[in-house]
Amino acid sequence: MHDGNGTLAMDDDDRTTTATRPSSPFGAGAALVTGDHGMGPSSTVETDVPPPAETMGPGTNPISIGLLGALGFLVVADARVIDPLLPVIADRFGTSIAAAGLTVSAYTLPYGLFQLVYGPLGDRVGKLRVMAVAILCFALGTAACAAAGTLPVLVILRFATGVAAAALIPLTLAHIGDTVPYAGRQAALGQYLSALAMGQILGASLGASVADFLSWRVIFLVYGLAALVMGLIFSRSVRRQPRVVSMARAARQPLTLSSLTSPYRAVVRERAAKVVLATVLLEGLCFFGGFVYVGAALRDRFNLAYAAIGVILACFGLGGLVYSRLVGRLLPRFGERGLVRLGGSVVTVAYVAVAVSPDWRLLPPLVFLAGIGFYMFHSTLQTKATELAPTARGTAVALFAFCLFLGQSTGAVLFGQLVDGAGYGVALVTSALATGAIAAAFSTKVRSLPGGSRTAPRPDPTAVTST
């Protein structure tokens, strides 16, 4: 039992814990943690913010970053796998590449939009519970794609899969924010990032390889079965976890459109949220809006084979993977502000060099460096997003992910017009310089944001459970 800013009381059998803390803009008593710890009756912890793992009762083992990463890998790989399959799908169904491309839009559109639904839903009923249902639906939808007999059926199945996939990454980020202390959070997110980077690297290449040697249907069946197995393992793990439900009072209200949107209104009123959300929106618009045309630029300038372009672009994901392994050393040395500044400088210089390079053989290391620099910036921004609203973390992270998605979608259109009007070189240099300017501006705000400090704390290696 302790008393300070709040009080903590625990009964003799460790089954019920209540805590009170200062009020928040999301209401008092704003988090509810319940679950079966293998001790009989469910445990309950009611706080403004989710309690640390040690208050959640004995017998509770955190969901490992490895398991969460496996789910994230499958989502990212599934999103990327269809890109190289478009010509094969078009040929199979006797249609155009443009028509086959509807399978991409059918996935990405609900993936972006439904994140806004899952954020407050996870805060109300439990992030892990929502994820457990979503991964099983994702598995069934992906496996069903293998049996699609017509293009419209495949488009519908991809839409349904995108709806399910939208829950997994944002709620995972929010769950890490709930369970990992801030000092070790960027290191934990770095481990999770490495799984997403591997999905980015391998997704398209696996799709292309399978298309060359086997039926395109095989890859959907393999991903679906893998997701089903991982989903069952995850669901079993979730049943042993306490259930973290933010905004307990809201959870007792009817589930309506107003009850889902009110947390968003509370989040965006916060000054820190405005800074982080505006930054990630501009990052998505300026960086990814231009970077999506790098492959086309390489084809236009060097007439490279598509396989070679794929390898070069995979170096960006490899840069993210390497950064995820180095973040535990870089963060204590440079601090969050230093990482943003250094990352912004590296991605700008490397990206400009990619745009003007006279020799394609220089491109793999340049794209690799661009990946490291970008993730130095983005990982810090992402970590800040997990601290915007501890009592509505799922909502805040979902809004963050949606702003990134909105920026990417808008940027692709705007930079496409710039490519048509001024050429690839101008578009890519503009994208690089704008990204550097955004990182420089954000670095001036880092210390004033939640979780910030003048010197970054050393990550706690015991804060992350990995497999």
Q: Concise description?
A:
Helix content is 69%, strand content 6%. It is mainly α and 467 residues long.
Structure explained in plain terms:
- This protein has helices at residues 65-81, 86-92, 97-100, 102-113, 115-125, 127-145, 151-165, 168-179, 182-213, 216-238, 248-251, 257-268, 271-291, 294-302, 306-356, 363-385, 393-422, 424-443, and strands spanning 2-3, 7-10, 16-20, 31-35, 43-47, 242-246.
- It is mainly α and 467 residues long.
- It folds into three domains: 2-55, no CATH class; 61-255, MFS general substrate transporter like domains (Growth Hormone, Chain: A), CATH 1.20.1250; 269-457, MFS general substrate transporter like domains (Growth Hormone, Chain: A, Up-down Bundle), CATH 1.20.1250.20.
- It has a six-stranded mixed β-sheet.
- Helix 6 packs antiparallel against helix 10 (216-238), helix 8 packs across helix 17 (393-422) and helix 15 crosses helix 16 (363-385).
- The longest helix is centred in the C-terminal third of the chain and has 51 residues, at 306-356.
- Mean pLDDT is 79; it is low at 1-60 and 453-467.
**Low-confidence region ranges:** 1-60, 453-467
Fraction in helix:
55-70%
- Order of adjacent strands in the largest pleated sheet: 1-2-3-5-4-6
The main pleated sheet reads as: 6 strands, mixed
The structure class reads mainly alpha
CA radius of gyration: 22 Å
Query: How many extended strands?
Result: 6
User: What is the rounded distance between the termini?
Assistant: 33 Å
Shape: globular
The CATH class of the largest domain is: Mainly Alpha
By CATH, the topology of the largest domain is: Growth Hormone, Chain: A
Looking at this structure, what is the CATH superfamily of the largest domain?
MFS general substrate transporter like domains
CATH architecture identity of the largest domain = Up-down Bundle
- Percentage of residues in DSSP E strands: 5-15%
What is the helix tally? 18
What is the domain total for the residues?
Answer: 3
**How confident overall, as mean pLDDT?**
79
